[in-house]
Amino acid sequence: MAGLDLSQLKAEIVRPTLKAIGLWSLAAENLLTGTALVESGGVYLRQLGSGPALGLWQMEPFTHDDCWQNFLKFPAHHSLADAILAMQSHDQTPSGQLVSNLRYACAMARVKYLRAPAPLPSAQDAIDLSSYHKRWYNTQGGAADEVANIPHFADAIRA
Length: 159
Fold this sequence. Notes:
Elements: H1 6-20, H2 26-40, H3 61-72, H4 78-85, H5 97-100, H6 102-114, H7 126-138, H8 150-158
């Protein structure tokens, strides 16, 4: 076995993180678990090759910084920002923590999805979860294949 146990990732990182920042739902839990699986295989902490993506959720530093500068810094998101800041360690840069701090990386991936104008898909629909990931997290120009990733989201649902 290589990588993290998906059930443990879901139960020990994703669920408690989402609850701590006040954004838990079963749909969010399955979406974030599936996202970690399709983005990094639950294995890689840095993008393979020369890409900039970091952590299990493969967030780019630019995306991380944009979430803070253009969303979390606004007064309407003050409580959410405080909850996420409480997860940070103080010995690394915030974007550097996408690699080493699983809770922080998960919270930031949830913020990325929170900014999407569409509501979360059904918690039990792997097809919709994969499509939502492709549209709102990976983007249309990204490498993710929403059809090929359906089984990964199904695994996340079962975990």
